[in-house]
């Protein structure tokens, strides 16, 4: 949109320089009003050391987990039971299916609400990152000193230290809703 405006202004200016009224008229027709800026997306909630990684896992689990658990329960309860247990079994399976659908639909919203509530704690990310690093460094030191006594524990401790370090988050940065073309 801005390119068309710039080209139209350029054509109009060229028409004025060359003294041509038709070029000026054509340039004036090519000029478009700039479009109103699109509504900016809201800033995402700031990430908090340790908690955001946990919420990411819960978010993934809230989509897949209920269906998997319901599938396991369905496999275990697929054989009809004699009455009065058969009636209770049917109710359980029906309500379970509805509950799975409801949980899959509503859980992401609840997780986003938790993200918003804990976002102010991102101010402490630098200090929390130091704690994460100290804990991971301790695991590395333990792997160096005592890990070789039990063969796979040194590798396991180092892998846990790498996993712990993934909980680090960057300090929060201001979110700008202005878009630059």
Would you write up a description of this structure?
- There is one protein chain.
- With 181 residues, the chain is mostly helical.
- Mean pLDDT is 76; it is low at 1-31.
- Helix 3 (51-76) packs antiparallel against helix 4.
- It has six helices and no strands.
- Helix content is 67%, strand content 0%.
- The chain is flat.
- It has two domains: 1-33, no CATH class; 51-165, no CATH class.
- Quote the beta fraction: under 5%
Question: What is the number of strand segments?
Answer: 0
The structure class reads mainly alpha
The percent range for helix content is 55-70%
Average pLDDT rating: 76
Largest sheet: none
Low-confidence stretches: 1-31
Radius of gyration from CA coordinates: 30 Å
Alpha plus pi helix count? 6
End-to-end separation in angstroms reads 10 Å
**Topology as H/E string?**
HHHHHH
Shape: flat
Total individual domains: 2
Keywords: Signal
Signal peptide: 1-25
